[in-house]
Specification:
- The complex is a heterodimer of chains A (451) and B (555).
- Chain A is mainly alpha-helical.
- Chain A has 19 helices and three strands.
- In chain A, strands 1-3-2 form a three-stranded antiparallel β-sheet, with helices on one face.
- In chain A, α3 packs antiparallel against α4, α3 crosses α9 and α4 packs across α8.
- In chain B, the strands form three sheets. In chain B, strands 3, 4, 5, 6 and 10 form a five-stranded antiparallel β-sheet that branches.
- Among the domains of chain B are: 248 residues, DNA primase, PRIM domain, CATH 3.90.920; 92 residues, no CATH class.
- The chains are: A mainly alpha (451), B alpha+beta (555).
- Bound molecules: iron/sulfur cluster (SF4) and zinc ion (ZN).
- The site of zinc ion (ZN) has 7 residues of chain B, from loops.
């Protein structure tokens, strides 16, 4: 095991392990599972928080609470072990498919980020940097003078007090702090980003992420080549149960027995599509075109709904050819649709987007994808909801949730309003919305296929 | 009439002594419509001295036996295209253009005339070129397309003799072709310039796209796919940007969609200046190529070694750095500069580029504040009711206070004054001025193109099949002088070649056309410096490797 700097363990400060190598610890089978479940609780709650669009401060608070509630061990000295063991168990659980890896990687990275931010002193932060072997030198005083104005300008632009000569800045190749670059949180000059001490989190997070990403691939190899077989009576059942219990279905396979034909699309779009998909569907019918993000979001959803590849091609062709002509459709767009079905390119199946993914997307000019509850202006959202048949009372409830950034809850309330029925599970996935809706409609309307 | 939108049917003037050639109508018709069948005859005009070259030196596709430019694969003589059945409205259009043509130039113009053919230059800026045709294109690939430059570029120094060269490098690059029968060929790869050249000349693609360098030869990807491990993956790709005028439709009033004109083109100039400066000064890149996309936008290729090796995440971070538009189709605001100050990059872009072009060019040329509908759009961007009411009051008054000044300028000054000073001072309204300017000028990138390594982008020096214009490089240092309506077209280039006959080698021919300038720029300002630093990098990384080996040996 490798907790950060052994002397920290005696302090009151929680250690921040980097999980560089698996611990040579004895673990009781029971703990193996319990620890993992506790950690999953943390990750899952973080994932919910992020999909609500919680801002960094709110997330920090959330994580602090979650750690306190789930990651403590009755014996304080065991805290670190629990932390490390649970992490490595979940690595096994989440190494097994690309989607599981992606989810785990982003949640563990987020967890690491907030834990790093919760470290109370610069010394602790520097210790983590040292642990990662980050080779950066602090900017010298002379150099600082030269860029002082720019650094001040950046600080103002992100709402922070201007730096002083005592503040430490690191000069780092811009590629190593992509998130600071993306959000214009650093001054960049001739390929170097000037990273303030309080932004160092970004550097270490990048390191953490790339280590973990590589480790997950290795774990996956080990899992498929040896562990699964060796442990088939002991750990394997636990590992396999753990992932499904928390992540829910990914809707990558169309529902069994459900095939949707093109002629039914308009009708089911009206009755059972969540607002995000309904909007894209209507836009497509109206403009005979959708930009890339929209094609992905709607295309994968339709795949999950049960539209077969040939029908999907026919459907998109019918619309796009009205705008760009059949030739251009075949040339420029058909590939993407086949790609969604895993017939081109990497040949892996693409999974329909979850609400979390849609909500955190960033539609730009000309884009219609995203989650309307998050990305529409209030006026547009109201208009769209009333077109769906949401009444005034329910509308106010929905808008109230939107204002508090509970987008999925707003969507759930919308679901309930248009179906006059409850939805206890809440909406987590557009395809779940669709399936739940169909279930209700079928039970209400006993004559199947009646239209 | 807007000069750019004026359409003049320009007859294709052809040399004498050739098989019958067709004249084509204005490209606005969807199909090429032969107007008149002209049987060239020597008696039509006096041979000028320059024209007295031997017949075989002519540039037009000639009968196979006379073909001069590719003895291996003789071109067929241009067949007489069968007259397509035309809908009656098309006929009307043809008639109309013919009439105009006759009025302007007299019927004699329809004949082939030496003088006429030699001095079509003034007209070219105004005319929309003839729709492109695959015989011309074959010609272009045969005589003008700079294969060896493209090969040198895409080899990044790996085509040399240096022991550090990776001889497989060029062969792992994906090319893709769109053929005229709408067949789309992906994952083409070539091992040499000659192979690239002969494939392109044989297939005569309407469009050539360039993809990434993969881990293995993309043409053999299936063989590797069998082996289980996912080894077929992009490993290098230029950092690319695609800026398309059709993304600016909400801020230009002169044209929309695929059309561009000199009134809206400054938006592209802004994009080039802003992005180019940031790529160099902020990100430290040096080898940057800007290219006209042939119709309505520009492409940018950042070719530094570091840029080629960026991960998707790093590419996305650069694209996001440039992104100011957070709005989408369904939200109100397109630009929101909520922070108390602008990031140095945005501040520099604003003062050095955006503000100037907005106030000096776009404000006037787009008549941004001229009508009620338009100024309401701007007032919508200012959330302070008292300000908007005041401005609206002023602007609704019929009478103009000053006749001498442009109404847009007057109103803009009023708006600025109110927001930046006077009684509303301290409300923080200043930034709305900036937001408006950003909304109307700041570059809008197609983010997807830049974010992923495996996006394809049209190769420079392709010919756009709709406009016939060559995708020529644009010098960012003088991009304000670039005129998309004056970019050489395929037919113009062929005419230029015709005028001088053929001297022989390609370089010579190139030089005599208006493409020569573009190629010279490409070589001297882009390719040579690029190859120089490729060589240096190769040298130093090779030496480092040697050093490393030495060290490990001496252990
Ligand atoms: S909450 Fe989910 S299902 Fe509902 S509109 Fe948003 S993304 Fe779609
Ligand atoms: Zn225009």
């Amino acid at each position: 095991m490798q907790p950060l700097r052994s002397h920290h363990q005696n302090d009151a400060i929680p250690a921040l392990p980097l999980y560089r190598s698996a611990p040579p610890l004895e673990v009781r089978l029971e703990d193996f599972e319990l620890y993992a479940i506790d950690r999953l609780r943390v990750l899952k709650a973080m994932s919910d928080g992020l999909s609500r669009g919680k801002n960094p401060e709110e997330m920090e608070k959330l994580v602090k609470g979650l750690l306190r509630a789930n990651m403590r061990h009755p014996q304080a000295s065991e805290d670190v072990n629990k932390d490390i063991i649970s992490h490595f168990v979940l690595r096994l659980v989440y190494c097994r498919t690309e989607d599981l890896r992606k989810w785990f990687l982003s949640m563990e990275t987020a967890l690491f980020r907030y834990r790093f931010l919760l470290l109370t002193s610069n010394d602790h932060r520097r210790a983590v940097m040292a642990e990662f072997n980050l080779p950066y030198k602090a900017v010298s005083n002379a150099e600082y003078e030269g860029v002082k104005d720019k650094l001040g300008q950046v600080a103002r632009s992100i709402g922070q007090p201007p730096p002083t000569a005592n503040d430490i800045f690191y000069k780092v190749p811009f590629e190593e702090v992509p998130e600071l670059v993306a959000n214009r949180k650093v001054y960049i000059h001739k390929g170097y980003a000037y990273v303030a001490m309080n932004q160092v989190v970004s550097l270490v997070v990048t390191q953490f992420r790339s280590h973990l990403s590589k480790a997950l691939i290795l774990t996956n190899r080990k899992w498929t080549s040896t562990i699964r077989e060796q442990e088939k009576d002991r750990l394997t059942p636990i590992v396999e149960a753990l992932s499904t219990s928390y992540l829910g279905p990914d809707y990558s396979q169309p529902r069994e027995s459900a095939e949707i034909s093109i002629k039914d699309l308009d009708q089911i779009a009206k009755s059972s599509f969540p607002l995000c998909m309904r909007h894209l569907f209507e836009k497509l019918r109206e403009d005979h075109h959708l930009k890339h993000g929209g094609r992905m979001q709607l295309g994968l959803f339709l795949k999950g709904v049960g539209l077969k590849l040939d029908d999907a091609l026919a459907f998109w062709r019918a619309e796009f050819s009205q705008k760009v002509g059949a030739e251009r459709f075949e040339k420029e767009y058909a590939y993407g649709i086949r790609h969604n079905y895993g017939k081109e390119g990497k040949r892996t199946d693409y999974t329909p987007f979850s609400c979390q993914k849609i909500i955190s997307s960033t539609p730009g000019v000309g884009d219609n994808h995203g989650c309307p509850f998050r990305h529409f202006s209030e006026e547009n959202l109201r208009a769209a909801l009333s077109r769906m048949g949401v009444g005034t009372r329910a509308m106010e409830d929905v808008m109230d949730k939107v204002r508090n950034r509970h987008y999925q809850i707003a969507c759930t309330l919308t679901f309930e309003a248009v179906h006059s029925s409850t939805c206890d599970a809440g909406i987590n996935h557009p395809n779940q919305y669709f399936i739940d809706s169909q279930k209700i409609l079928q039970s209400k309307n006993q004559s199947p296929g009646g239209s | 009439m807007d000069p750019v939108h004026r359409r003049i049917a320009r007859a294709d003037i052809r040399l004498r002594g050739f098989p019958p050639i067709l004249l084509y109508a204005s490209p606005s018709s969807r199909h090429e419509i032969p107007l008149v069948q002209v049987v060239p005859s020597l008696s039509l005009s006096l041979p000028s001295p320059r024209r007295s070259r031997p017949f075989t030196h002519s540039l037009l596709p000639s009968p196979p036996s006379l073909s001069f430019f590719d003895s291996r694969r003789p071109l067929h003589a241009p067949q007489l295209l069968p007259l397509p059945k035309r809908p009656s409205n098309c006929l009307a259009e043809v008639k109309e253009t013919m009439t105009r043509e006759e009025c302007e130039n007299g019927p004699a113009d329809m004949l082939i005339d030496g003088n006429k053919a030699r001095a079509p230059r003034e007209k070219q800026g105004n005319s929309v070129p003839d729709k492109f045709n695959s015989n011309y294109l074959k010609f272009y690939y045969g005589k003008l397309f700079p294969f060896s430059d493209i090969f040198k570029w895409m080899s990044y120094g790996n085509d040399g003799k240096h022991p550090g060269c990776d001889q497989t490098y060029f062969g792992r690059r994906e090319f893709s072709f769109t053929l005229d029968n709408d067949i789309y060929l992906r994952f083409q790869s070539f091992t040499s310039a000659a192979e690239l050249e002969s494939s392109i000349q044989e297939k005569c693609p309407f469009k050539i796209d360039i993809g990434p360098v993969y881990s293995v030869d993309p043409a053999k990807r299936h063989a590797y796919a069998q082996s289980g491990d996912n080894v077929f993956t992009p490993v290098e790709r230029e950092l690319i940007f695609d800026i398309d005028m059709s993304d600016y439709d909400d801020v230009r009033y002169c044209c929309s969609g695929a059309d561009v004109c000199l009134e809206c083109w400054p938006l592209m100039t802004v994009a080039i200046k802003v992005i180019d400066t940031a790529l160099r000064d902020d990100f430290g890149f040096n080898h940057i190529l800007w290219v006209y996309s042939g119709r309505r936008g520009v492409h940018c290729w950042v070719c530094d070694r570091k840029a080629r090796r960026l991960s998707n995440e790093q590419r996305a971070s650069i694209a996001d750095y440039f992104r100011v538009y957070k709005g989408n189709e369904n939200s109100d605001k397109k630009v929101s500069l909520t922070s108390p100050a602008l990031h140095p990059f945005l501040a520099r872009s604003y003062t050095e580029v955006l503000e100037g072009i907005f106030e000096e060019k776009l404000l006037l040329s787009q008549n941004i504040l001229a009508t009620e509908e338009r100024y309401e759009k701007i007032l919508d961007m200012i959330p302070d009711e008292s300000v908007t009411a005041e401005l609206r009051g002023k602007w609704q008054e019929k009478r103009q206070s000053s006749i001498s000044n442009d109404i847009n300028v007057v109103r803009w000054e009023q708006l600025k004054q109110l927001l930046q000073s006077g009684k509303h001072k301290g409300k923080g309204l200043r930034r709305y001025v900036e937001e408006i300017v950003f909304s109307f000028t700041y570059p809008r990138l197609d983010m997807e193109v830049s974010k992923h390594m495996n996006h394809l982008l049209k190769a420079p020096f392709c010919v756009h099949p709709k406009t016939g214009r060559v995708c020529v490089p644009i010098d960012p240092n003088s991009c304000e002088e670039f005129d998309p309506t004056a970019v050489p077209t395929l037919s113009m280039l062929l005419e230029e070649l015709n005028q001088g006959g053929v001297r022989g080698d390609v370089g010579d021919d190139l030089d005599r056309t208006s493409l020569g300038k573009s190629i010279r720029y490409f070589r001297s300002s882009f390719l040579q410096p690029l190859l120089k630093s490729c060589k240096e990098e190769m040298e130093s990384s090779y030496n480092a490797k040697l050093q490393q080996m030495k060290n490990s040996l001496s252990w």
